[in-house]
Amino acid sequence: MKKTVSNPVGIAKPLSNYSHVVRVEIADTALLFVAGQIAFDQEGKLVGDDISTQTEFIFRQIESILKGEGAALTDVVKATIYVTDMSFYNEVAVIRNRYFALESAPATTFVEVSALAREGLLVEIEVQAAVQLST
After folding, report:
1. What is the CATH number of the domain that holds 89?
2. Per the CB 3.0–4.6 Å rule, which of 15, 31, 56, 63 could disulfide with 24?
3. What angle do CA 63, 117, 77 make, to 5 degrees?
């Protein structure tokens, strides 16, 4: 087993002691564990004050992180979406459904939480992906 951690260029630095991506290679598969992504730009500033803008930003960020690891959204096997208000469900689901095609839709958990790591954040999304390694 080989384990590597990374914090991709272009993504806001972690808020504390964690890595944005942990990659575990076992046999011919790489498992990617992407930490909960939030709507902070590269300078750590909040992007958008509405659920749609934040969600769209996060999915583009996750897509970029996965691409940097040789993966795509179609490789995601599990997603967990945290929102500060369950009334955001429909808006988030519409955006999620654009990024996750029905034929490769991951198992997903959608959870309401009382707050996220910083004021103004409305949504946080984490994913796990599995990628076949080249032989």
Report:
1. 3.30.1330.40
2. 31
3. 35
Pairing of strands 29-37, 123-132: antiparallel
pLDDT in tens, 15-29: 788 889 999 999 999
0.90 cut: is pTM over it?
Answer: yes
Tell me the pLDDT tens digit for each residue of 29-66: 999 999 999 999 999 999 999 999 999 999 999 999 99
Q: Are 129 and 31 in contact (CB under 8 A)?
A: yes
Q: Where are the beta strands (DSSP E) in 1-135?
A: 2-6, 21-26, 29-37, 76-83, 107-112, 123-132
Count up the domains in the chain and report the number. Answer: 1
Domain span including residue 10: 2-132
pLDDT digits (tens, 9 = 90+) for 96-133: 999 998 888 999 999 999 999 999 999 999 999 999 99
